[in-house]
């Protein structure tokens, strides 16, 4: 390359193929400088233009001349060159280091492939245990010579940690966790060195108390003498490792798209364990109260809670809906079965995205015959408290509730009973406006935000009763002492708001027909419902409890979306 490097800011081109001569100049000093092996040694001649478009004799003629590059420009070019050289050197060094490490790792793995591990036939045969099993002999930490049981466990790697030659694996099987300790030669095998989270493994060894000062689930660990990765092979690692796909605090929508993986996390799975226990506790509590379980249809042709949230579909050419509530069907069971309940899905085409609305939710509904409104409230309170008692009495599940909601204490009985009219006064006194930003007045629907503010301030379960006829469903019985209001109840919980809606039902035929008329609902398709009032009507009532809302309260979850397996809400129907 020439000793003098030419830069023409007009027609030069910044390409490495250029010679940098006056016939083949670069466009910028910086680029020209970076092309040189020893840039400090060259001289740089620059000019503004060589197009010849400048008329001779004009002032711009000077622009045609090659001049030495300005000192300041040279300094700038040099600084950039120096910085780039430094960066390149560092990158080269890092690459070399990576290659060295990679080569070392390859060599270690090559060696590891030669390590053959086999189960020692001389050892006592291993007893298969589930990770929850506690009735297994442990070798005492004191090491007084007693042996622990030799066991065989199956599970997925929940966590893995290497410490020198020892590989610690925490196994998970849905029933518990167990720390497994793999020393040499197991830890030097290929499978141990390439172990990834979520891999399913089978591990054999002796169960031991953990040494004093060390911590492990249930205070024990499995000193492995043999292990194998199960047939399906290792779980994805590297970029595709589960920890790179889902992590606590990750983007909400991504976590929901990957709910099948999120569910493996400790918080999500604890909520699901509590859910299982709560559902079971409701069954137990209802059986104790002698209610019978029934299973009403999900595909229906009648509404219960207003047309706005109906999911319509074509049913062999007829209009049909996904059920909003099984209530009306439960009412039809009373004459033959006595008090009944169901745990079924309800569907609401909610057009808003709130933290307590789902499109599909689990609805726990009960219907009781020959009762008063007070009986209804007392029953509801007793069932909610009994369910909590049963759940908290389970040492494992009660423990999960305490981990998720550390301040949880079962509510005191009786629950606060507050009439709607008193709630309106309370909201006015506390300056909480209605949806139009005005002072609350009798007849207003208490919106979600106001309801929550009041519930959070009172900070205990509230039975809010006696809502005005106009803002409640058509089937609700009027209060005989004040016909403006219904014998209705919402149970409100701090942090969530309404978790239960219930009422006494209109049991008089004519009154029910008038309610259909008033609300503009055609009573024709309800013949099976209105017939109940023709053939031995009775004072009766019931309620529906949203399981996900109950769990959001109990497990202190921000949203009901985290309280079901695969949430459905406006815009989401996957996975
Ligand atoms: O107050 P709701 O609409 O009452 C009924 O459906 C009655 N027919 C029930 C009955 O008396 N058998 O709903 C009852 C409960 C609410 O308190 C709430 O907990 C839950 O169902 N719920 C929802 N949960 C999640 N997402 C939604 N979109 C919900 N809509 C109601």
Automatic annotation (TrEMBL):
<comment type="similarity">
    <text>Belongs to the class-II aminoacyl-tRNA synthetase family.</text>
</comment>
<dbReference type="Pfam" id="PF00152">
    <property type="entry name" value="tRNA-synt_2"/>
</dbReference>
<protein>
    <recommendedName>
        <fullName>asparagine--tRNA ligase</fullName>
        <ecNumber>6.1.1.22</ecNumber>
    </recommendedName>
</protein>
<dbReference type="Pfam" id="PF01336">
    <property type="entry name" value="tRNA_anti-codon"/>
</dbReference>
<keyword id="KW-0067">ATP-binding</keyword>
<dbReference type="InterPro" id="IPR004364">
    <property type="entry name" value="Aa-tRNA-synt_II"/>
</dbReference>
<keyword id="KW-0963">Cytoplasm</keyword>
<dbReference type="GO" id="GO:0003676">
    <property type="term" value="F:nucleic acid binding"/>
</dbReference>
<dbReference type="InterPro" id="IPR004522">
    <property type="entry name" value="Asn-tRNA-ligase"/>
</dbReference>
<dbReference type="GO" id="GO:0006421">
    <property type="term" value="P:asparaginyl-tRNA aminoacylation"/>
</dbReference>
<dbReference type="InterPro" id="IPR002312">
    <property type="entry name" value="Asp/Asn-tRNA-synth_IIb"/>
</dbReference>
<dbReference type="InterPro" id="IPR006195">
    <property type="entry name" value="aa-tRNA-synth_II"/>
</dbReference>
<feature type="coiled-coil region">
    <location>
        <begin position="83"/>
        <end position="120"/>
    </location>
</feature>
<dbReference type="Pfam" id="PF20917">
    <property type="entry name" value="AsnRS_N"/>
</dbReference>
<keyword id="KW-0547">Nucleotide-binding</keyword>
<dbReference type="InterPro" id="IPR004365">
    <property type="entry name" value="NA-bd_OB_tRNA"/>
</dbReference>
<dbReference type="GO" id="GO:0005737">
    <property type="term" value="C:cytoplasm"/>
</dbReference>
<feature type="region of interest" description="Disordered">
    <location>
        <begin position="1"/>
        <end position="24"/>
    </location>
</feature>
<keyword id="KW-0648">Protein biosynthesis</keyword>
<keyword id="KW-0436">Ligase</keyword>
<keyword id="KW-0175">Coiled coil</keyword>
<dbReference type="GO" id="GO:0004816">
    <property type="term" value="F:asparagine-tRNA ligase activity"/>
</dbReference>
<feature type="compositionally biased region" description="Acidic residues">
    <location>
        <begin position="1"/>
        <end position="13"/>
    </location>
</feature>
<dbReference type="InterPro" id="IPR012340">
    <property type="entry name" value="NA-bd_OB-fold"/>
</dbReference>
<dbReference type="GO" id="GO:0005524">
    <property type="term" value="F:ATP binding"/>
</dbReference>
<feature type="domain" description="Aminoacyl-transfer RNA synthetases class-II family profile">
    <location>
        <begin position="274"/>
        <end position="575"/>
    </location>
</feature>
<keyword id="KW-0030">Aminoacyl-tRNA synthetase</keyword>
<dbReference type="InterPro" id="IPR048952">
    <property type="entry name" value="AsnRS_N"/>
</dbReference>
<dbReference type="InterPro" id="IPR045864">
    <property type="entry name" value="aa-tRNA-synth_II/BPL/LPL"/>
</dbReference>
